[in-house]
Amino acid sequence: MSQHLVVVDRVADWEGQLDPGLLVTARDYIAHRLESRSRQLKVINLCRSHRYLSTGYYVSLLAEARGDRVIPNVSTVLDLSRKSIYQWRTGALEVALGKRLSEREEESIVFSVHFGRTDEAALQPLADALFEHFPAPILEVELRRLGGWHLHRLQIGPSKTLQDETRKHLTEALNAYLGKRWRKPKSHAPSRYDLAVLHNPEEPMPPSNKRALAAFVKAGYRLGVDVDLITRQDYPQIAEWDALFIRETTSVNHHTFRFAKRAEAEGIVVIDDATSILRCTNK
């Protein structure tokens, strides 16, 4: 049987809200194995930040190395660090958004998920699904209407800036969560291929607008293709993908042509290929 441990930056921040016997500082957790605890630990990482190489990140990393179960785990932290990573995993969820939010008039919806719970009943099914995919104490979510509803932002929320009422809601959600059986994050079949889509977010009249790019990502998810939206800064990493789809206005004396040539040199399938760009430019 396992026992719970709540790791925080400062115990004083949570006094009177959580059982003192559950609390331990991140510094103490990292420095000591707590050998007196003979059972497997279930670690709730409530550090103020979970950014890469932060104290919160190391708490999750060390918990996994010690064989403890931790929320959020390192995989969740890394998955939520880049939109191109979590977007393909949430593609199927967006299909249901249109039906549930069809009567909403606003252009964007921002809400928080605390251990799988949110205040608005209409958004609870989405909160359940997001928490199942990305178990984290706090998830900050932003939905935007772009033709249909899309998940615009998803990230692990910080615990350091919580208002009193929000902190109370988080504490209630945590206490409820402690009584539940822990489940592993929903597994996903590995993608068959990795596709890079080169685009320029600042281009005034791009070949594919944001809505079309989002459709590419969702279509790839359904077909088992991991679609990453990349920019010219990703040129050094081009060999990491299986194929390149250029959705930026092409030209010969331009980085799009260099991308196409580099992809061909690496043996990567590319559209438009360098010859097509050359012919189109010179016609």
Note the topology:
Elements: E1 3-8, E2 23-25, H1 26-31, E3 41-45, H2 55-65, E4 69-71, H3 74-79, H4 83-89, H5 91-100, E5 108-114, H6 124-133, E6 138-146, E7 148-156, H7 164-178, E8 193-198, H8 210-223, E9 225-230, E10 243-246, H9 255-265, E11 269-271, H10 274-282
Parallel strand pairs: 1-2, 1-3, 3-4, 8-9, 8-10, 10-11
Antiparallel strand pairs: 5-6, 6-7
Shape: elongated
Helix/strand/pairing category: alpha/beta
The CATH class of the largest domain is Alpha Beta
Compute the number of strand runs: 11
Number of helices, counting only DSSP H or I runs of 4 residues or more: 10
The stretches of 5 or more residues where confidence is low (pLDDT under 50) are none
Largest sheet descriptor: 4 strands, parallel
Q: Which H/E pattern describes the elements?
A: EEHEHEHHHEHEEHEHEEHEH
Helix content: 25-40%
Count of the domains: 3
CATH architecture of the largest domain: 2-Layer Sandwich
N-C termini distance: 72 Å
Output the radius of gyration.
22 Å
Please list the strands of the largest sheet in the order they lie side by side. Answer: 2-1-3-4
Per the CATH scheme, the topology name of the largest domain is: D-amino Acid Aminotransferase, Chain A, domain 1
Question: Which strand-content bin applies to the residues?
Answer: 15-25%
Mean pLDDT: 83
Protein architecture, described:
With 283 residues, the protein is α/β, with parallel strands linked by helices. It has three domains: 71 residues, no CATH class; 102 residues, D-amino Acid Aminotransferase, Chain A, domain 1 (2-Layer Sandwich), CATH 3.30.470; 90 residues, Rossmann fold (3-Layer(aba) Sandwich), CATH 3.40.50.20. The chain contains ten helices and eleven strands. It has a four-stranded parallel sheet. Strands 9-8-10-11 form a four-stranded parallel sheet. The longest helix has 15 residues. The termini are far apart. The mean pLDDT is 83.
